[in-house]
C-alpha cells in the first residue's frame, strides 16, 4: 500500500455519519398557546455544527423552523441558543463535542420575550446596551490629522471587552436577569467597561453613574454563568467586578 | 398584526450597504447634519468588512520617518501593474493619515507602540511599515467602531433589506426599491442622492473568501441598470490560500501570515514548487504570483487528489504558531479537525477581491449617473491589476468622507427632482414577476453552475477559447431564467433574494468574461495562456456597458514626484508555461 497516493481514493477517509436526535422547543404565536417540544432525527458528521443540523431540518424536514443565523463562524452573534441547557452559539458547537447517545435539546435563550421557535425579541437587550452609551466620548483634540496617543498598557486595559459580539449568551444565562429582566445584564456592563477603561474616553463618570443604579452592577451576584457562557472567552465576571470597584473608587 | 405591503420612506441621502464604506459615509453625512438612511442585506455587525484581518494602510511616518504618502502612492501604482488611476491613488494615499486619525477619533482600538503611537507593521510589497491593525481582527474592530459611531449619531440603519433596483428618471437617480428578507414587505425609498456601497463580485467563483450571499455582483447590476458602467471587471484578486474542505466553507482564507511566518508550499509530489516560479522570494512572493504557481501545479497534474497543494507550517515551533497564527490554528481545528502544528493544510487559490468595479470619477466617485455614487469594493480605480494588502480598508475611510461631502452638496443644490412612476412600477413588476415564477428550475442550481463556469473558464488562467466557451455556457444559464421557480417559505424570502443574487451574478459574469476577452495580455492577476506577455498598448482600463461593448480608457500620466519613487515592475517568474 506504499503507492496509495496514486491509487483511486481509498475509502477509509469516507467519513462516518451518525443519526442524531434533536429535540427542539417550538413555538408559533399564531397557533400555539404554549411552546412544545418536537423531535427530529438528522444524519450528521462529527465535524458538523448544531447550526448545520438546524439547516438540514429546515431544508429537508420542516421549512417552518425559525432561527436567526448570519455569519456562521462566531462573529455576528445572531445564533446564540440554549443547547443541552447551556447557552452557546449554534455555529460554534460541534456535534463531536456533544453526547449524541442521548437526544440534544435546543431551545431559545431565556429571559427575553419569545417570538417564534428559537427567535427571541432582542430589543430589551439592545436597549440596555444603548443606555450605557457604547461609543467613545472624548474631549481631547489631538490636532487636525493627528492621532491621540495611548500606551500599550492602557490599550491592554480594555482589550478583553472589545471582543464582545453582542450575542446575549451571557445576559440570557444570568439568573438575576431571568427574574425580572430589569437588570442591565452582563453584556451592557461589558460594553460599558470597554469605554470606561479606554484612556481616551472622558465619559466614564456618566456611565458609572448609570451603572450605580439599583438595576446596575450591584445586582450581579457573581455566579459566573456569564463568563461560562461567553463564546468569546471574555472574563465577564471580572469585568463587572472592575466596574463595581470603579463605581466605588472612581476610574483608576 | 398585519404588515403594510409596501413601506414608503424618504431620505436626503440613501446608502446601500452597511459595511465599512457605507457607514463611514453615513457618519460624515450625519456630522454635516444631513438626513441619511443606510440599508444592508446582512446584519450591520456582520457586513463583509468584519472579515478583514490584517490591517489598514497609511504612511503616517511615525514608525519609519522616511515614509511619505508619495512613497505609498508609488508602491500602490507599481504593484497595480500601472493600471491604477494615479488620481485615485493620490487622493487615497494623501488622505490616508486623516482617515486613520478620523477612525482613531471615533474610538478604534488600534494596537499601540510602547510610547503610545499607533503601531504599524510591514505588509507585502510596501516599502515601509505603514499597516495599522488591531490584533488579527482589524476589520471587525473597524466595523464595530463605525456601527457604534453611526448609532451614536442616530443614523437610521435598516438591516435585512435587499435592494433590487435603483430608481432613475431622465438620467438622474431618485431612490431605490427592494424588500425585507424576513417577511417580504416591499420598501420604496425616495432619496436625493444614492451611494452604492454594496461590494464586489467575487462570490461568482466556486471558491471564494466571501460567504453565501456576499459580493454576488449586486452593485454591478444596480449601477448598470441605472445607466452606469463597469471598469476592469476582469481584474479579480485570487488569494493563494483558501481551504478546500468542507465544501460549505471552501475558499475560507488561510492568512498570508502563514507564509510570512515561514510556511512552505509543496505539491502532491512533495516538491517545493515556488523554486520554479520565484526562486528568490519563494513563498514570500506576491499574491498574484503565488496564486498562479499553485494554479499551474494543480492544472498540470501535480496537485492533490482534491485539486489543491500543501501549505505546511508544522515545522515551526508550536509556540510560534500559537502566538502568531492563532486564527489559522483555530479555523483549521474547527473546520477540519486538523492540527496545523502536526499536519500540512490543503489549499487552492480562491477568489478574494474585485479590483475593478463600477466606473467612477476619481475626484468624487460619481458614476456619471446624476446623484449616484459608488464606493468601496463596489467602485474601481485604486488597485489596477494587483491590490496591496491593507489598501482597501483605507480606501473606505478616505472616500467615505469625500463621497459623503459630494452627495451632501448634490442634495443641497437640487431645486426639484423628477420622479418616475414608470420606474417604480417596473421595479415592483420585477419582484412580482419573480414571486410568480413557478418553474421547475432551482435558482441555487443555476447559481452553482455559474460559479463552476467562472472557475473553469475565468479563473487564475484564461484563454480566448475558454472565455468564449464560458460565454456560451452563461447564455445557456441565462436562457433557463424563464423556467425558474421562486418559493419563499413562511420563514423568510431568502429564495427571492437568491433569485436576485443570480440576476446580479449573471450580469457580473458577463462583464467579467467579455472584459477578459478584450484584455489580450498577461498582467497582474489576469493571466492569458494565449497571450503570455504584458502588452504596453493595453496599459488602459477596460470599461464595459450593458450592451456588451468594452471600450478602452486612457490612464493619465503618473506625476513626476511619484514616478521618481517607483522601482521597476518585475515580471520574473510570471508565467512558467
From TrEMBL, chain A:
Kindly indicate where the leader peptide sits in this chain.
none
Q: Which InterPro entries match?
A: 2Fe-2S_ferredoxin-like_sf, 2Fe-2S_ferredoxin-type, 4Fe4S_Fe-S-bd, 4Fe4S_Fe_S_CS, Beta-grasp_dom_sf, Helical_ferredxn, SDH/FRD_Iron-Sulfur, Succ_DH/fum_Rdtase_Fe-S
Its UniProt pathway annotation is: Carbohydrate metabolism; tricarboxylic acid cycle
**E.C. designation(s):** 1.3.5.1
Class of this enzyme: oxidoreductase
Keyword check for 4Fe-4S: yes
Q: Does Iron show up as a keyword for this record?
A: yes
Q: Which reaction does it catalyse?
A: a menaquinone + succinate = a menaquinol + fumarate
Which cofactors? [4Fe-4S] cluster; [3Fe-4S] cluster; [2Fe-2S] cluster
What's the record's note on cofactor binding?
A: Binds 1 [4Fe-4S] cluster.
Which UniProt keywords are present, listed alphabetically? 2Fe-2S, 3Fe-4S, 4Fe-4S, Iron, Iron-sulfur, Metal-binding, Oxidoreductase, Tricarboxylic acid cycle
GO BP terms: namely: respiratory electron transport chain; tricarboxylic acid cycle
- The organism sits in which domain of life? Bacteria
Which residues does the UniProt record annotate as the domain 4Fe-4S ferredoxin-type?
Answer: 154-176
Q: Where is the 2Fe-2S ferredoxin-type domain?
A: 18-112
Q: Which PROSITE patterns does the UniProt record give?
A: 2FE2S_FER_2, 4FE4S_FER_1, 4FE4S_FER_2
Annotated coiled-coil segments of the chain: none
Molecular functions (GO terms)? 2 iron, 2 sulfur cluster binding; 3 iron, 4 sulfur cluster binding; 4 iron, 4 sulfur cluster binding; electron transfer activity; metal ion binding; succinate dehydrogenase (quinone) activity
The text of the family note is: Belongs to the succinate dehydrogenase/fumarate reductase iron-sulfur protein family.
- Report what the protein is called: Fumarate reductase iron-sulfur subunit
Native species of this protein?
Mycetocola reblochoni
From TrEMBL, chain B:
* Active-site residues, as the UniProt record annotates them: 287
**Keywords, ordered alphabetically:** Flavoprotein, Oxidoreductase
Q: Where is the signal peptide?
A: none
- Residues forming the FAD-dependent oxidoreductase 2 FAD-binding domain are 13-393
Pathway, per record: Cofactor biosynthesis; NAD(+) biosynthesis; iminoaspartate from L-aspartate (oxidase route): step 1/1
Coiled coil (residue ranges)? none
Q: Does the keyword Flavoprotein apply?
A: yes
The keyword Flavoprotein is assigned to this record:
yes
GO BP terms: small molecule metabolic process
Family the UniProt entry places it in:
Belongs to the FAD-dependent oxidoreductase 2 family. NadB subfamily.
What protein am I looking at?
L-aspartate oxidase
Amino acid at each position: 500500500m506504499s503507492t496509495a497516493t496514486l491509487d483511486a481514493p481509498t475509502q477509509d477517509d469516507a467519513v462516518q455519519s451518525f443519526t442524531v436526535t434533536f429535540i427542539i422547543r417550538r413555538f408559533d404565536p399564531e397557533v400555539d398557546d404554549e411552546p412544545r417540544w418536537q423531535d427530529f432525527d438528522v444524519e450528521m458528521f462529527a465535524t458538523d455544527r448544531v447550526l448545520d443540523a438546524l439547516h438540514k431540518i429546515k431544508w429537508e424536514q420542516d421549512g417552518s423552523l425559525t432561527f436567526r443565523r448570519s455569519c456562521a463562524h462566531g462573529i455576528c452573534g445572531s445564533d446564540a441558543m440554549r443547547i443541552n441547557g447551556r447557552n452557546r452559539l449554534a455555529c460554534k458547537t460541534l456535534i463531536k463535542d456533544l453526547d449524541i447517545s442521548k437526544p440534544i435539546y435546543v431551545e431559545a435563550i431565556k429571559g427575553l420575550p419569545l417570538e417564534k421557535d428559537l427567535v427571541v425579541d432582542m430589543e430589551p437587550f439592545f436597549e440596555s446596551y444603548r443606555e450605557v452609551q457604547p461609543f467613545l466620548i472624548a474631549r481631547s483634540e489631538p490636532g487636525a490629522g493627528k492621532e491621540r496617543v495611548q500606551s500599550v498598557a492602557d490599550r491592554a486595559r480594555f482589550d478583553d471587552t472589545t471582543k464582545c459580539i453582542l450575542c446575549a449568551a451571557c445576559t440570557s444565562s444570568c439568573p438575576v436577569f431571568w427574574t425580572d429582566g430589569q437588570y442591565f445584564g452582563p453584556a451592557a456592563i461589558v460594553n460599558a467597561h470597554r469605554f470606561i477603561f479606554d484612556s481616551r474616553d472622558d465619559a466614564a463618570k456618566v456611565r458609572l453613574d448609570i451603572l450605580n443604579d439599583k438595576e446596575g452592577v450591584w445586582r450581579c451576584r457573581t455566579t459566573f454563568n456569564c463568563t461560562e457562557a461567553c463564546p468569546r472567552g471574555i472574563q465577564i465576571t471580572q469585568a463587572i467586578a472592575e466596574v463595581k470597584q470603579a463605581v466605588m473608587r472612581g476610574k483608576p | 398584526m398585519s404588515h403594510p405591503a409596501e413601506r414608503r420612506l424618504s431620505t436626503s441621502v440613501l446608502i446601500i450597504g452597511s459595511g465599512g464604506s457605507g457607514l463611514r459615509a453615513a457618519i460624515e453625512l450625519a456630522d454635516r447634519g444631513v438626513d441619511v438612511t443606510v440599508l444592508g442585506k446582512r446584519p450591520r455587525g456582520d457586513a463583509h468588512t468584519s472579515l478583514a484581518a490584517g490591517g489598514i494602510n497609511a504612511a503616517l511616518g511615525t514608525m519609519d520617518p522616511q515614509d511619505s504618502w508619495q512613497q505609498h502612492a508609488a508602491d500602490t501604482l507599481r504593484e497595480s501593474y500601472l493600471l491604477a488611476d494615479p488620481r485615485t491613488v493620490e487622493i487615497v494615499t494623501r488622505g490616508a493619515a486623516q482617515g486613520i486619525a478620523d477612525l482613531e477619533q471615533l474610538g478604534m482600538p488600534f494596537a499601540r507602540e510602547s510610547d503610545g503611537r499607533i503601531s504599524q507593521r510591514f505588509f507585502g510589497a510596501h516599502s515601509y511599515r505603514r499597516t495599522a491593525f488591531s490584533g488579527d481582527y482589524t476589520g471587525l474592530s473597524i466595523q464595530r467602531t463605525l456601527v457604534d459611531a453611526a448609532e451614536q449619531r442616530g443614523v437610521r440603519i435598516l438591516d435585512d433589506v435587499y435592494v433590487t433596483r435603483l430608481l432613475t428618471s431622465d438620467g438622474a437617480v431618485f431612490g431605490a426599491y427592494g424588500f425585507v428578507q424576513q417577511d417580504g414587505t416591499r420598501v420604496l425609498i425616495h432619496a436625493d442622492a444614492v451611494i452604492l456601497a454594496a461590494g464586489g463580485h467575487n462570490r461568482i467563483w466556486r471558491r471564494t473568501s466571501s460567504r453565501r450571499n456576499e459580493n454576488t455582483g449586486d452593485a454591478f447590476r444596480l449601477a448598470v441598470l441605472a445607466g452606469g458602467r463597469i471598469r476592469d471587471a476582469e481584474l479579480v484578486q485570487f488569494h493563494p490560500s483558501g481551504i478546500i474542505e468542507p465544501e460549505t466553507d471552501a475558499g475560507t482564507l488561510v492568512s498570508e501570515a502563514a507564509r510570512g511566518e515561514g510556511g512552505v508550499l509543496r505539491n502532491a509530489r512533495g516538491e517545493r514548487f515556488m523554486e520554479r516560479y520565484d526562486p528568490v522570494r519563494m513563498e514570500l512572493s506576491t499574491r498574484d504570483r503565488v496564486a498562479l504557481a499553485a494554479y499551474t501545479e494543480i492544472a498540470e497534474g501535480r496537485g492533490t487528489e482534491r485539486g489543491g497543494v500543501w501549505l505546511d507550517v508544522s515545522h515551526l515551533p508550536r509556540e510560534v504558531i500559537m502566538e502568531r497564527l492563532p486564527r489559522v490554528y483555530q479555523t483549521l481545528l474547527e473546520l477540519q479537525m486538523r492540527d496545523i502544528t502536526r499536519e500540512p493544510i490543503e489549499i487552492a487559490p480562491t477568489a478574494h477581491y474585485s479590483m475593478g468595479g463600477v466606473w467612477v470619477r476619481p475626484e468624487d466617485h460619481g458614476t456619471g449617473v446624476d446623484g449616484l455614487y459608488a464606493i468601496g469594493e463596489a467602485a474601481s480605480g485604486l488597485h489596477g491589476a494587483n491590490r496591496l494588502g491593507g489598501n482597501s480598508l483605507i480606501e473606505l475611510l478616505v472616500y467615505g468622507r469625500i463621497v459623503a461631502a459630494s452627495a451632501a452638496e448634490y442634495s443641497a443644490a437640487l431645486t426639484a427632482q423628477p420622479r418616475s412612476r414608470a420606474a417604480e412600477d417596473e421595479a415592483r413588476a420585477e419582484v412580482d414577476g419573480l414571486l410568480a415564477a413557478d418553474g421547475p428550475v432551482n435558482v441555487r442550481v443555476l447559481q452553482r453552475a455559474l460559479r463552476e463556469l467562472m472557475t473553469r473558464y475565468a479563473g487564475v488562467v484564461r484563454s480566448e477559447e475558454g472565455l468564449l466557451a464560458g460565454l456560451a455556457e452563461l447564455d445557456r444559464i441565462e436562457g433557463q431564467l424563464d423556467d425558474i421557480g421562486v418559493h419563499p417559505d413562511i420563514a423568510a424570502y431568502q429564495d427571492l433574494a437568491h433569485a436576485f443574487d443570480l440576476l446580479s451574478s449573471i450580469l457580473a459574469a458577463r462583464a467579467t468574461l467579455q472584459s477578459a476577452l478584450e484584455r489580450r495580455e498577461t498582467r497582474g492577476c489576469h493571466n492569458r495562456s494565449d497571450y503570455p506577455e504584458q502588452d504596453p498598448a493595453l496599459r488602459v482600463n477596460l470599461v464595459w456597458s450593458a450592451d456588451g461593448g468594452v471600450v478602452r480608457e486612457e490612464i493619465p500620466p503618473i506625476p513626476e514626484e511619484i514616478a521618481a519613487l517607483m522601482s521597476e515592475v518585475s515580471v520574473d517568474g510570471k508565467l512558467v508555461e
